[in-house]
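new request in #modeling-help
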Amino acid sequence: MLPTPSTSHVCFDRVYEPAEDSFLLLDTLSSPSESAFLHQRFGQNACVSDIAPLVLEVGVGSGVVLGFVAANARKIFGREDVLTLGTDINRFACQAASRTVETAIKDSASRTTFSDVINGDLASSLKPNAIDVFIFNPPYVPAELPDFTHHDSYNILPTGETRTTFDQDSYLLELSYAGGEDGMVVTNRMMEQMPELLSPARGVAYLLLCAQNKPEEVKQRVRNWGPGWCAETVGSSGNKAGWERLQIVRFWRITAQDTTQH
Amino acid sequence: MKLLTLNFLTCAIKSCKTSPASFPLHPRDAELEIVEADVNLAFLQNILPRLMWAELRTIASELGLPTLPEDIPEREALVEGRGEGEGEGEGGEQIPSQTAKDLHRVLLETCIQEGKLVCGNCGHEYAVKEGVANFLLPGHLV
Ligand SMILES: C[S@@+](CC[C@H](N)C(=O)[O-])C[C@H]1O[C@@H](n2cnc3c(N)ncnc32)[C@H](O)[C@@H]1O
Ligand SMILES: [Zn+2]
Protein backbone atom coordinates (compact mmCIF):
# COMPACT_ATOMS: atom_id res chain seq x y z
CA MET A 1 0.00 0.00 0.00
CA LEU A 2 1.35 3.41 -0.98
CA PRO A 3 1.11 6.17 1.63
CA THR A 4 -1.97 8.44 1.71
CA PRO A 5 -1.18 12.18 1.62
CA SER A 6 -1.64 14.11 4.82
CA THR A 7 -4.76 16.27 4.94
CA SER A 8 -4.40 17.27 8.59
CA HIS A 9 -4.39 20.99 7.65
CA VAL A 10 -7.79 20.78 5.92
CA CYS A 11 -10.97 22.02 7.61
CA PHE A 12 -13.59 19.37 6.87
CA ASP A 13 -16.45 21.68 7.87
CA ARG A 14 -16.37 23.07 4.34
CA VAL A 15 -14.12 20.76 2.30
CA TYR A 16 -15.02 17.14 1.52
CA GLU A 17 -13.27 14.76 3.88
CA PRO A 18 -11.57 11.79 2.20
CA ALA A 19 -13.99 8.86 2.38
CA GLU A 20 -14.61 5.44 0.87
CA ASP A 21 -14.95 6.95 -2.62
CA SER A 22 -11.64 8.82 -2.37
CA PHE A 23 -9.86 5.70 -1.13
CA LEU A 24 -11.37 3.57 -3.88
CA LEU A 25 -9.77 5.95 -6.38
CA LEU A 26 -6.39 5.69 -4.64
CA ASP A 27 -6.57 1.90 -4.49
CA THR A 28 -7.66 1.61 -8.11
CA LEU A 29 -5.02 3.97 -9.51
CA SER A 30 -2.27 2.10 -7.67
CA SER A 31 -3.63 -1.41 -8.28
CA PRO A 32 -1.31 -3.75 -10.19
CA SER A 33 -3.67 -3.91 -13.16
CA GLU A 34 -4.06 -0.12 -13.50
CA SER A 35 -0.35 0.49 -13.02
CA ALA A 36 0.30 -2.02 -15.77
CA PHE A 37 -2.15 -0.24 -18.06
CA LEU A 38 -0.73 3.19 -17.26
CA HIS A 39 2.89 2.08 -17.57
CA GLN A 40 2.10 0.73 -20.99
CA ARG A 41 0.41 3.95 -22.02
CA PHE A 42 2.86 6.38 -20.44
CA GLY A 43 6.06 4.50 -19.56
CA GLN A 44 9.44 4.42 -21.29
CA ASN A 45 8.30 2.49 -24.31
CA ALA A 46 5.06 4.34 -24.88
CA CYS A 47 4.65 6.62 -27.87
CA VAL A 48 5.59 10.26 -27.23
CA SER A 49 7.32 9.15 -24.06
CA ASP A 50 9.43 12.31 -24.01
CA ILE A 51 6.41 14.61 -23.58
CA ALA A 52 5.39 15.32 -19.98
CA PRO A 53 1.91 13.95 -19.20
CA LEU A 54 -0.69 16.35 -17.75
CA VAL A 55 -2.96 14.96 -15.02
CA LEU A 56 -6.16 16.87 -14.27
CA GLU A 57 -8.38 16.18 -11.30
CA VAL A 58 -11.74 17.93 -11.36
CA GLY A 59 -13.29 18.52 -7.92
CA VAL A 60 -10.08 18.02 -5.93
CA GLY A 61 -11.69 18.63 -2.52
CA SER A 62 -8.97 18.06 0.07
CA GLY A 63 -6.50 17.16 -2.69
CA VAL A 64 -5.97 13.66 -1.34
CA VAL A 65 -6.28 11.99 -4.75
CA LEU A 66 -4.19 14.46 -6.74
CA GLY A 67 -1.59 14.51 -3.97
CA PHE A 68 -1.44 10.72 -4.07
CA VAL A 69 -0.90 10.71 -7.82
CA ALA A 70 1.77 13.43 -7.59
CA ALA A 71 3.61 11.62 -4.81
CA ASN A 72 3.44 8.15 -6.36
CA ALA A 73 3.77 8.93 -10.07
CA ARG A 74 6.80 6.73 -10.51
CA LYS A 75 4.89 3.68 -9.30
CA ILE A 76 1.66 4.58 -11.06
CA PHE A 77 2.97 5.78 -14.44
CA GLY A 78 6.58 4.67 -14.47
CA ARG A 79 7.81 8.27 -14.79
CA GLU A 80 8.14 11.44 -12.77
CA ASP A 81 7.98 14.21 -15.38
CA VAL A 82 4.26 14.42 -14.61
CA LEU A 83 2.41 17.73 -14.23
CA THR A 84 -0.62 17.82 -11.92
CA LEU A 85 -3.46 20.34 -12.16
CA GLY A 86 -6.76 20.56 -10.28
CA THR A 87 -10.06 22.41 -10.28
CA ASP A 88 -12.81 22.84 -7.72
CA ILE A 89 -15.91 24.97 -7.55
CA ASN A 90 -15.17 25.53 -3.84
CA ARG A 91 -12.42 28.09 -3.33
CA PHE A 92 -11.58 26.76 0.13
CA ALA A 93 -10.98 23.35 -1.43
CA CYS A 94 -8.63 24.91 -4.02
CA GLN A 95 -6.47 26.38 -1.28
CA ALA A 96 -6.54 23.24 0.85
CA ALA A 97 -5.74 20.95 -2.08
CA SER A 98 -2.78 23.04 -3.26
CA ARG A 99 -1.21 22.63 0.13
CA THR A 100 -1.97 18.89 0.22
CA VAL A 101 -0.35 18.30 -3.17
CA GLU A 102 2.72 20.42 -2.40
CA THR A 103 3.20 18.66 0.93
CA ALA A 104 2.68 15.22 -0.59
CA ILE A 105 5.37 15.90 -3.20
CA LYS A 106 7.80 17.17 -0.58
CA ASP A 107 7.14 14.35 1.90
CA SER A 108 7.58 11.65 -0.71
CA ALA A 109 10.62 13.29 -2.34
CA SER A 110 8.76 12.83 -5.62
CA ARG A 111 10.12 14.71 -8.65
CA THR A 112 6.74 15.54 -10.15
CA THR A 113 5.57 19.08 -10.79
CA PHE A 114 2.44 20.70 -9.42
CA SER A 115 0.76 23.35 -11.55
CA ASP A 116 -2.18 24.91 -9.66
CA VAL A 117 -5.74 24.36 -8.52
CA ILE A 118 -8.18 26.56 -10.42
CA ASN A 119 -11.43 27.72 -8.86
CA GLY A 120 -13.83 26.93 -11.65
CA ASP A 121 -16.70 24.91 -13.00
CA LEU A 122 -15.53 21.43 -14.04
CA ALA A 123 -12.86 21.71 -16.76
CA SER A 124 -14.39 24.72 -18.50
CA SER A 125 -11.20 26.81 -18.27
CA LEU A 126 -8.93 24.17 -19.80
CA LYS A 127 -7.59 24.09 -23.32
CA PRO A 128 -9.07 21.33 -25.48
CA ASN A 129 -7.11 18.11 -26.17
CA ALA A 130 -4.60 18.84 -23.40
CA ILE A 131 -5.42 16.30 -20.70
CA ASP A 132 -3.63 12.96 -20.62
CA VAL A 133 -5.07 11.62 -17.37
CA PHE A 134 -8.43 12.82 -16.10
CA ILE A 135 -9.79 12.00 -12.63
CA PHE A 136 -13.20 12.88 -11.19
CA ASN A 137 -14.91 11.84 -7.99
CA PRO A 138 -18.06 13.85 -8.62
CA PRO A 139 -20.98 14.85 -6.44
CA TYR A 140 -22.81 11.58 -7.20
CA VAL A 141 -25.57 11.28 -4.57
CA PRO A 142 -29.11 11.47 -5.96
CA ALA A 143 -30.12 14.58 -3.99
CA GLU A 144 -31.39 17.97 -5.03
CA LEU A 145 -28.63 20.30 -6.28
CA PRO A 146 -27.90 23.19 -3.94
CA ASP A 147 -29.21 26.66 -4.70
CA PHE A 148 -26.33 28.37 -6.49
CA THR A 149 -27.62 31.94 -6.14
CA HIS A 150 -25.33 32.73 -3.21
CA HIS A 151 -22.28 30.95 -4.60
CA ASP A 152 -20.11 34.07 -4.95
CA SER A 153 -20.65 35.19 -1.37
CA TYR A 154 -20.42 31.67 0.07
CA ASN A 155 -17.22 31.00 -1.84
CA ILE A 156 -15.17 33.53 0.18
CA LEU A 157 -14.89 34.56 3.81
CA PRO A 158 -17.65 37.00 4.77
CA THR A 159 -16.32 40.61 4.62
CA GLY A 160 -14.34 41.49 7.69
CA GLU A 161 -14.72 37.99 9.16
CA THR A 162 -12.12 35.33 9.78
CA ARG A 163 -14.61 32.45 9.85
CA THR A 164 -17.23 31.04 7.54
CA THR A 165 -20.88 30.86 8.57
CA PHE A 166 -22.82 27.67 9.26
CA ASP A 167 -25.02 28.18 6.17
CA GLN A 168 -21.96 28.71 4.07
CA ASP A 169 -20.33 25.49 5.26
CA SER A 170 -23.53 23.50 4.68
CA TYR A 171 -23.76 24.86 1.16
CA LEU A 172 -20.13 24.05 0.36
CA LEU A 173 -20.51 20.50 1.65
CA GLU A 174 -23.73 20.05 -0.31
CA LEU A 175 -21.77 20.95 -3.45
CA SER A 176 -19.45 18.06 -2.72
CA TYR A 177 -22.07 15.32 -2.71
CA ALA A 178 -25.42 16.43 -4.20
CA GLY A 179 -25.68 15.24 -7.80
CA GLY A 180 -29.30 16.00 -8.75
CA GLU A 181 -31.42 13.46 -10.61
CA ASP A 182 -29.84 9.97 -10.49
CA GLY A 183 -26.84 11.76 -8.98
CA MET A 184 -25.79 12.40 -12.58
CA VAL A 185 -26.46 16.07 -13.31
CA VAL A 186 -22.92 17.31 -12.65
CA THR A 187 -21.32 14.16 -14.10
CA ASN A 188 -23.38 14.44 -17.28
CA ARG A 189 -22.20 17.99 -17.82
CA MET A 190 -18.63 16.79 -17.36
CA MET A 191 -19.10 13.89 -19.76
CA GLU A 192 -20.16 16.33 -22.47
CA GLN A 193 -16.79 18.13 -22.23
CA MET A 194 -14.78 14.93 -22.02
CA PRO A 195 -14.16 13.93 -25.67
CA GLU A 196 -12.75 17.39 -26.50
CA LEU A 197 -10.78 17.61 -23.29
CA LEU A 198 -8.75 14.42 -23.48
CA SER A 199 -5.58 14.24 -25.54
CA PRO A 200 -6.33 12.26 -28.71
CA ALA A 201 -3.12 10.22 -28.52
CA ARG A 202 -3.10 9.00 -24.96
CA GLY A 203 -6.01 10.52 -22.97
CA VAL A 204 -7.55 8.32 -20.28
CA ALA A 205 -10.25 9.17 -17.75
CA TYR A 206 -11.15 7.73 -14.34
CA LEU A 207 -14.64 8.46 -13.10
CA LEU A 208 -16.23 7.33 -9.85
CA LEU A 209 -19.87 6.24 -10.03
CA CYS A 210 -22.33 4.82 -7.53
CA ALA A 211 -24.93 2.19 -8.35
CA GLN A 212 -27.75 4.78 -8.63
CA ASN A 213 -25.78 6.56 -11.38
CA LYS A 214 -26.54 3.58 -13.69
CA PRO A 215 -22.90 2.85 -14.54
CA GLU A 216 -23.74 0.42 -17.34
CA GLU A 217 -25.58 3.20 -19.19
CA VAL A 218 -22.69 5.57 -18.65
CA LYS A 219 -20.21 3.09 -20.11
CA GLN A 220 -22.44 2.45 -23.10
CA ARG A 221 -22.66 6.16 -23.73
CA VAL A 222 -18.86 6.43 -23.88
CA ARG A 223 -18.64 3.52 -26.32
CA ASN A 224 -21.07 5.41 -28.52
CA TRP A 225 -18.76 8.43 -28.73
CA GLY A 226 -17.18 6.84 -31.75
CA PRO A 227 -14.73 4.26 -33.01
CA GLY A 228 -11.99 3.27 -30.59
CA TRP A 229 -13.72 4.54 -27.43
CA CYS A 230 -13.67 2.03 -24.59
CA ALA A 231 -15.15 2.05 -21.09
CA GLU A 232 -14.59 -0.56 -18.39
CA THR A 233 -15.09 -0.89 -14.66
CA VAL A 234 -11.59 -1.13 -13.18
CA GLY A 235 -12.29 -0.93 -9.45
CA SER A 236 -15.21 -1.39 -7.09
CA SER A 237 -16.13 -1.43 -3.43
CA GLY A 238 -19.06 -2.33 -1.22
CA ASN A 239 -19.83 -5.49 -3.20
CA LYS A 240 -23.03 -7.05 -1.99
CA ALA A 241 -24.51 -9.95 -3.94
CA GLY A 242 -22.93 -8.76 -7.18
CA TRP A 243 -24.16 -5.21 -6.64
CA GLU A 244 -21.31 -2.74 -6.31
CA ARG A 245 -22.10 0.36 -4.36
CA LEU A 246 -19.18 2.33 -5.80
CA GLN A 247 -17.10 1.74 -8.88
CA ILE A 248 -14.37 3.37 -10.92
CA VAL A 249 -14.91 3.45 -14.66
CA ARG A 250 -12.00 3.98 -16.99
CA PHE A 251 -12.58 5.57 -20.44
CA TRP A 252 -9.95 5.64 -23.11
CA ARG A 253 -9.50 5.50 -26.83
CA ILE A 254 -7.65 2.80 -28.66
CA THR A 255 -5.47 4.44 -31.25
CA ALA A 256 -4.17 2.87 -34.45
CA GLN A 257 -0.78 2.46 -32.80
CA ASP A 258 -2.22 0.40 -29.92
CA THR A 259 -3.79 -2.01 -32.34
CA THR A 260 -0.58 -2.59 -34.26
CA GLN A 261 1.24 -3.28 -30.99
CA HIS A 262 -1.16 -6.04 -30.00
CA MET B 1 -0.63 30.84 -9.82
CA LYS B 2 2.33 29.78 -11.91
CA LEU B 3 2.85 31.11 -15.41
CA LEU B 4 3.12 27.52 -16.66
CA THR B 5 -0.54 27.04 -15.76
CA LEU B 6 -1.50 29.75 -18.26
CA ASN B 7 -0.17 27.47 -20.98
CA PHE B 8 -3.19 25.21 -20.37
CA LEU B 9 -5.94 27.73 -19.69
CA THR B 10 -8.40 29.45 -21.95
CA CYS B 11 -11.55 31.53 -21.58
CA ALA B 12 -14.28 29.51 -19.85
CA ILE B 13 -17.01 30.90 -22.10
CA LYS B 14 -17.98 28.18 -24.54
CA SER B 15 -18.34 30.35 -27.60
CA CYS B 16 -14.81 31.74 -27.07
CA LYS B 17 -13.04 28.39 -27.25
CA THR B 18 -13.03 28.21 -31.02
CA SER B 19 -11.59 31.71 -31.33
CA PRO B 20 -7.78 31.88 -31.41
CA ALA B 21 -7.94 35.20 -29.51
CA SER B 22 -9.16 33.40 -26.38
CA PHE B 23 -5.62 32.05 -25.85
CA PRO B 24 -3.50 33.06 -24.10
CA LEU B 25 -5.33 34.92 -21.38
CA HIS B 26 -3.66 38.27 -20.78
CA PRO B 27 -2.53 39.16 -17.26
CA ARG B 28 -3.55 42.64 -16.16
CA ASP B 29 -2.65 44.61 -12.98
CA ALA B 30 -0.69 41.57 -11.88
CA GLU B 31 1.25 41.43 -8.63
CA LEU B 32 3.99 38.87 -9.05
CA GLU B 33 5.79 36.88 -6.45
CA ILE B 34 8.84 34.66 -6.87
CA VAL B 35 8.38 31.32 -5.13
CA GLU B 36 11.64 29.43 -5.29
CA ALA B 37 11.62 25.77 -6.26
CA ASP B 38 14.18 23.16 -7.25
CA VAL B 39 15.02 22.97 -10.95
CA ASN B 40 13.80 19.74 -12.50
CA LEU B 41 15.72 19.30 -15.72
CA ALA B 42 13.95 16.16 -16.92
CA PHE B 43 10.61 17.88 -16.50
CA LEU B 44 11.71 21.07 -18.26
CA GLN B 45 12.96 19.07 -21.23
CA ASN B 46 9.76 17.12 -21.51
CA ILE B 47 7.44 20.09 -21.04
CA LEU B 48 9.11 21.95 -23.96
CA PRO B 49 7.06 20.19 -26.66
CA ARG B 50 3.88 21.29 -24.88
CA LEU B 51 4.72 24.98 -24.55
CA MET B 52 2.97 27.52 -26.73
CA TRP B 53 6.14 29.56 -27.07
CA ALA B 54 4.93 32.65 -28.92
CA GLU B 55 2.06 33.03 -26.46
CA LEU B 56 4.38 32.54 -23.51
CA ARG B 57 6.63 35.28 -24.86
CA THR B 58 3.62 37.58 -25.12
CA ILE B 59 2.66 36.90 -21.50
CA ALA B 60 6.22 37.48 -20.30
CA SER B 61 6.45 40.79 -22.12
CA GLU B 62 3.01 41.89 -20.87
CA LEU B 63 4.24 41.20 -17.35
CA GLY B 64 7.41 43.21 -17.95
CA LEU B 65 9.64 40.16 -17.50
CA PRO B 66 12.95 39.80 -19.35
CA THR B 67 12.32 39.03 -23.03
CA LEU B 68 12.30 35.34 -23.83
CA PRO B 69 14.34 34.16 -26.81
CA GLU B 70 12.47 34.31 -30.09
CA ASP B 71 12.75 30.59 -30.69
CA ILE B 72 11.92 27.92 -28.18
CA PRO B 73 15.11 26.43 -26.73
CA GLU B 74 16.18 22.99 -27.91
CA ARG B 75 16.17 20.17 -25.37
CA GLU B 76 19.97 20.04 -25.50
CA ALA B 77 20.27 23.74 -24.68
CA LEU B 78 18.86 23.04 -21.23
CA VAL B 79 21.88 20.96 -20.27
CA GLU B 80 25.14 22.64 -19.21
CA GLY B 81 28.33 22.15 -21.16
CA ARG B 82 27.02 19.52 -23.54
CA GLY B 83 29.67 18.24 -25.92
CA GLU B 84 32.56 19.67 -23.91
CA GLY B 85 32.74 16.70 -21.61
CA GLU B 86 31.84 18.77 -18.56
CA GLY B 87 28.09 18.35 -18.60
CA GLU B 88 28.07 15.78 -15.89
CA GLY B 89 28.05 16.38 -12.18
CA GLU B 90 28.37 13.82 -9.45
CA GLY B 91 26.94 10.45 -10.31
CA GLY B 92 26.63 11.46 -13.94
CA GLU B 93 23.69 13.75 -13.28
CA GLN B 94 23.12 16.44 -15.87
CA ILE B 95 23.47 20.06 -14.83
CA PRO B 96 20.85 22.63 -15.87
CA SER B 97 22.16 25.42 -18.11
CA GLN B 98 21.39 29.11 -17.62
CA THR B 99 18.69 28.70 -20.28
CA ALA B 100 17.08 25.98 -18.16
CA LYS B 101 17.28 28.11 -15.04
CA ASP B 102 15.72 31.08 -16.83
CA LEU B 103 12.93 28.92 -18.17
CA HIS B 104 12.36 27.43 -14.72
CA ARG B 105 12.16 30.92 -13.23
CA VAL B 106 9.51 32.04 -15.72
CA LEU B 107 7.38 28.89 -15.78
CA LEU B 108 7.50 27.64 -12.23
CA GLU B 109 8.80 30.32 -9.89
CA THR B 110 7.02 33.41 -11.19
CA CYS B 111 3.53 33.42 -9.66
CA ILE B 112 0.62 35.78 -10.09
CA GLN B 113 -0.65 36.51 -6.60
CA GLU B 114 -3.23 39.17 -7.39
CA GLY B 115 -4.62 40.55 -10.62
CA LYS B 116 -6.78 39.63 -13.56
CA LEU B 117 -6.62 37.36 -16.57
CA VAL B 118 -8.35 38.87 -19.56
CA CYS B 119 -9.79 37.04 -22.57
CA GLY B 120 -8.58 38.58 -25.83
CA ASN B 121 -11.78 37.57 -27.56
CA CYS B 122 -14.65 38.60 -25.27
CA GLY B 123 -12.81 40.81 -22.77
CA HIS B 124 -14.05 38.84 -19.78
CA GLU B 125 -11.82 39.34 -16.73
CA TYR B 126 -11.01 36.46 -14.42
CA ALA B 127 -9.78 37.52 -10.99
CA VAL B 128 -6.72 36.05 -9.31
CA LYS B 129 -6.80 36.45 -5.53
CA GLU B 130 -4.25 35.10 -3.10
CA GLY B 131 -2.82 33.10 -5.96
CA VAL B 132 -6.10 31.35 -6.85
CA ALA B 133 -7.65 32.10 -10.24
CA ASN B 134 -11.43 32.27 -10.32
CA PHE B 135 -12.96 31.01 -13.56
CA LEU B 136 -16.53 30.78 -12.33
CA LEU B 137 -18.89 32.63 -14.60
CA PRO B 138 -21.95 34.47 -13.37
CA GLY B 139 -24.94 32.17 -13.72
CA HIS B 140 -22.67 29.46 -15.10
CA LEU B 141 -24.51 26.72 -13.31
CA VAL B 142 -28.11 27.59 -14.06
C1 LIG C 1 -17.15 13.81 -3.72
S1 LIG C 1 -16.13 15.25 -3.56
C2 LIG C 1 -14.53 14.57 -3.99
C3 LIG C 1 -13.37 15.29 -3.36
C4 LIG C 1 -12.00 14.64 -3.57
N1 LIG C 1 -11.66 14.56 -4.98
C5 LIG C 1 -11.99 13.25 -2.96
O1 LIG C 1 -12.02 12.27 -3.75
O2 LIG C 1 -11.94 13.13 -1.75
C6 LIG C 1 -16.62 16.22 -4.99
C7 LIG C 1 -15.83 17.53 -5.20
O3 LIG C 1 -16.27 18.13 -6.41
C8 LIG C 1 -16.41 19.52 -6.23
N2 LIG C 1 -17.37 20.01 -7.24
C9 LIG C 1 -18.73 19.90 -7.22
N3 LIG C 1 -19.26 20.45 -8.32
C10 LIG C 1 -18.21 20.93 -9.07
C11 LIG C 1 -18.11 21.62 -10.31
N4 LIG C 1 -19.21 21.94 -11.02
N5 LIG C 1 -16.89 21.98 -10.75
C12 LIG C 1 -15.78 21.67 -10.04
N6 LIG C 1 -15.81 21.01 -8.86
C13 LIG C 1 -17.01 20.63 -8.38
C14 LIG C 1 -16.86 19.67 -4.79
O4 LIG C 1 -16.60 20.96 -4.30
C15 LIG C 1 -16.04 18.57 -4.11
O5 LIG C 1 -14.80 19.06 -3.69
ZN1 LIG D 1 -13.73 34.91 -23.76
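bot summary: The longest strand of chain B covers residues 26-34.
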